[in-house]
Amino acid sequence: MKKRMVSSAKETILEITMKESVQALDEIVVRPKTNKDAPLNPMALAGARMLSVEEASRYAGGFDDPARLVGSFAGVAGDVTSNSIAIRGNSPQSLQWKLEGVEIPNPSHYPEIGGVGGGILTAFSSQVLGNSDFFAGAFPAEYNNALSGVFDMALRNGNNRQYEHTAQVGTLGVEFASEGPFKKGERASYLFNYRYSSMALAGDIAGGDMKEVSGMRYQDLSFKINLPTQKAGVFSLWGIGTNDGFVNYLPDDLSDFDYIPIEGTARQYMGTAGLGHKIFLDENTYLKSTYAVTYSQNHTMTDLYDANRRNPQRIQDMLDKNTNLIFHSYLNRKFSARHTNRTGVTLTNLFYDDNYNIAPNAPYTNGEPMENFADADGNSFLASAYTQSSYQFNEQFTAQLGLNMQYFALNRRWTFEKRASIRWQVSPRHVFALAYGMHSRHERLDYYFVTTLETGNRLVNKNLDFAKAHHAVLSYDWNVSDNIHFRIEPYFQYLYDVPVVPGSGISIINQTDFYMTRQLVNDGKGRNFGIDFTFERYLKDGYYYMLTASVFDSKYRGGDGVWRNTRYNRRFLTNALGGKEWMLGRNRQNVLGVNLRMNLMGGNYYTPLDEAASLAGQRPVEDENRMMGSQNPVAFTAHITVSYKINRQGTAHEFGLKMLNITGSTDFYNFDYNYRTGQLEHAAAAVSIPNIYYKVTF
């Protein structure tokens, strides 16, 4: 059982699960035991851990964002300017996001504007998020269409006994949440959270590079309605949505402006809603089903101005709309205390509308008009089915076997993916586990509709196969005490059928733009191997800490057959985080909390410039002969959270400061040409985001 914070204004509800023993016992004594590291999914024996909501509201650098929070887990690399999740050297776009059992679009605000797979913050608030599972490799058979990992998230149920409300105002915006029963004395409940955020206020306070994001406006809404019935099972209606707007304003006076004068705007929307149902068919069998619809839209436009800030030329206009209709259902059957099987199916109807236009060499174009390289409007179909059995031989050994199948109707491609794992409980405190899995993922739909000038209207990527990977994970867990846990997890991943540009070192593995303009073939490969360490003390006696370290190597082979470092081959990752809480006040009912996180990791790789060609053309030109040949410097980052909570009868007040990147660590992301100096510059951002807030719960 997990420890939970008890507040005067919010009722604490605990869900306690029990694991069935294969031995017959005369008497059972239930004692609470912290087991935060174990995933919620019983089919996961290695490569996974649970994300606690308590962490999302306590860890420094989390910003109540689960994507930023998992950056403190072993093997996971993140950036200050983005919440992208790069797992064990893989691209962030190889991760799959799931909510209530179905795959959803990237739930971040401003997704993929600064790079695929990331954004600023996710739309998930700690007010509505339930405990969730994070998989870093070799995941069970029920998960498909992912290469690096899966973030399997859930919304919690609202309180069905009393009404509770939370309001918060801060430099990043305002937020309001409410939950309670539909009718007193009945089990049905509601829960919702609305957030409107303006980065402009934070930009005014922080100044510096933070001013660059002051054109951001975003809002999100999430909800869940839980409807238990007497005989028809439990129904749930849930949803989450985002509305983002961004303008990259140019200064009024361009006479002192050093760079190419472009102004970009973006409108982005994401919405997901679903109807869930769970019913027990008998005491050993239940059926769980979900009907869902997802929608995402990204419309970005870029205008190029002259030196007098006049005569704008549209050099980029990209519109991407995707709607998915999803049915997911599985049957969970416990045949005996030893044997459990889970078998399911997912059917997804994919609707797409893409229209991508860009000028040659944008944004350093010379007046050439935009060219269309992807224009498609239609629908396709993705089907998957799986089965997985777990067999517990005795109290020490558990084994699992599974199979997942996928069919992509757009180009009639199939995959059959085997999964297997075994767990050995050596003693009550020592556990070994070994897991293997084959995994695959289709590409973004717009990649399949790329046309090039050389091929006319021919769809050069229509027949791309799934990219695939073999995962192997070995883990050793030592419960040093009921409150201290140590884990070692070596792993190996081999990727193949990876899309690459023929005869070039360009690979999807290193892709950062959200669009593709090149012809691709499935000739690429990759390999990632390393070892992760985690040493963690759970919250007790008012303090906690976690230390993680990862040493790894990540290589890829492009269309030219040469092995190179991947963009995400940072070599090492380390994290140290912790916090202390003091009980203050006359009756020791108030809480002062201080949390700190420090991170030291190697830099990403990048392709250096061909300086002669760049200076001659007055624009950055990459040297493809040295693809991924340089590495950014080692980065040290620190974050801090300070809060003071005042508990009163029926009400709680909280004042706090959450500061991201107090060290001013720099993220390097591309190159610029400085027209004033005539020099090439490695563009970087050192964004420190402050959130000074007040929260009241009543």
Automatic annotation (TrEMBL):
Superkingdom in the source lineage: Bacteria
Protein name per its UniProtKB record: Prevent-host-death protein
